[in-house]
Design goal:
Blueprint (H helix, E strand, L loop, with lengths): L6 H13 L31 H9 L3 H9 L14 H7 L3 H9 L14 H7 L6 H8 L14 H8 L2 H9 L14 H7 L5 H12 L14 H8 L2 H9 L5
Helix pairs in contact: 1-3, 1-5, 2-3, 2-4, 3-5, 4-5, 4-6, 6-7, 6-8, 8-9, 8-10, 9-11, 10-11, 10-12, 11-13, 12-13
Length: 248
């Protein structure tokens, strides 16, 4: 086996130190990830027996264990029976420390599992309205307009869940504001049709409107966003839309 003091391992160790070990670096003030190791940097000899333990450790948020397994030769590209990489497993539970260590070791933020979800897409919808994991993925090559199994963008996913902070960050990243998924809906449609009109979705609609989405795009049913809001009695959302020039 090669020396464990390779540049790639040193980069991972630096991230681990910044993350504070098993605490995972999940506090809001935790330092950001170190840059990706360059492909030319050496890595430990691959030990396939450690690949599945790495995915399990990542899923549990065991940052120290993730680091140890990488230094012993576990591959960050390995997948489990569901097609998940270790980074995907960490992403679903918002384990930021483990995610930083994995990315420093070369994990791909765009690698999709069998359900067509990547760490980047997961960060838009599965971790609450917490943009920290999203920031990490954007900083490390996320394909902003990538699509899920519904041909939906991260913006559509975030809007459906009622995540206004994530919506604003995605809009700032230049995501397609008016993409229509295979259900015939934009992000604005999903923020209305798949919500109960509560405060989170009101704030999400506000973020979308402020971000310049088309308020008059008609979905697959031929109904505009304002029409959906009026049908459902979502008065606050309807007022936001009308003020932006929406027509039903």
């Amino acid at each position: 086996m090669r020396s464990l003091t390779t540049p790639a391992v040193v980069a991972v160790a630096g991230v681990l130190a910044a993350c504070g070990g098993d605490r995972g670096g999940d506090s809001p003030t935790a330092p950001q990830a170190s840059p990706h190791p360059r492909p030319s940097q050496a890595a430990p000899t691959h030990n396939p027996k450690l690949d599945q333990p790495l995915i399990k450790a990542a899923e549990r948020g065991q940052t120290d264990r993730v680091h140890e397994l990488i230094t012993r030769g576990a591959s960050v590209r390995a997948r489990d029976a569901q097609g998940r990489t270790a980074l995907t497993a960490a992403a679903f539970l918002n384990h930021l420390g483990a995610a930083r260590v994995l990315i420093a070791a070369g994990a791909d933020v765009n690698a999709k599992d069998d359900t067509k979800q990547s760490p980047y897409l997961i960060a838009s919808s599965e971790v609450g309205d917490d943009p920290r994991l999203l920031e990490i993925t954007l900083d490390h090559g996320a394909r902003v307009n990538d699509k899920d199994s519904y041909n939906g963008t991260a913006l559509i996913r975030a809007a459906e869940r009622g995540h206004p902070r994530i919506v604003r960050r995605l809009l700032a990243a230049g995501i397609d504001r008016d993409h229509v998924n295979r259900l015939g809906w934009t992000a604005l449609h999903e923020a209305i049709v798949l919500s109960e009109g509560g405060p989170e979705h009101v704030a999400t609609v506000r973020a979308l409107v402020d971000g310049g989405v088309d308020v008059n795009v008609r979905g697959g049913s031929g109904i505009a966003p304002l029409g959906h809001a009026e049908q459902r009695g979502y008065g606050r959302i309807a007022r936001i839309l009308r003020a932006a020039g929406a027509r039903s």
